[in-house]
Amino acid sequence: xxxxxxxxxxxxxxxxxxxxxxxxxxxxxxxxxxxxxxxxxxxxxxxxxxxxxxxxxxxxxxxxxxxxxxxxxxxxxxxxxxxxxxxxxxxxxxxxxxxxxxxxxxxxxxxxxxxxxxxxxxxxxxxxxxxxxxxxxxxxxxxxxxxxxxxxxxxxxxxxxxxxxxxxxxxxxxxxxxxxxxxxxxxxxxxxxxxxxxxxxxxxxxxxxxxxxxxxxxxxxxxxxxxxxxxxxxxxxxxxxxxxx
Length: 245
Hints:
There is one protein chain. The protein is of the alpha/beta class. The protein has eight helices and seven strands, in the order H-E-H-E-H-E-H-E-H-E-E-H-E-H-H. The chain has a seven-stranded mixed β-sheet, sandwiched between helices.
């Protein structure tokens, strides 16, 4: 199996690869960002990954989610991801948590010996709970802000959430994190102004139905080349942290 990561070892060194092999990372959310993040971590040689999601693959996921194909529609996202990750790296320990991320489930989801937590969730309350919990437990955390309604992946940057601008999700996070006395949160966010999605196309009927089921949340538009890039960048950030590169 060593040959699988020989090209990575040329840059990360043998010592770095051993650190990755011994590391345990939690990826919260397996959508367009989280699915690509999880796969990039496993392709990098991560030893243990905990994947968390409570959703199923739908046809509207196919345009951007790496785990979504015509063959995985209807599958639990965690199971689709588990099969794909093990097909890439059979020796990786893939731990599945098929549940919602809530404050009262976080102690079960995130183990005490975690090396890094990556938040790829798309709901504000869950993101806030994760940030508050990780601050309390002193778990290293990086959080993805909004990747929907964006077209330019070159505008993605790492920053503390309290230094961000433009991103509507980051704005809400800043306000609510202050209320929870969370002092700092490393995030990946886009400096690109949000693009207003066109909702009068017949192709958006499924998206509109999904939005009607969640009246307080309008489903954003998305493309194949922004959320996956964000996921890869998050994985790269964590790989560099673990290996010291």
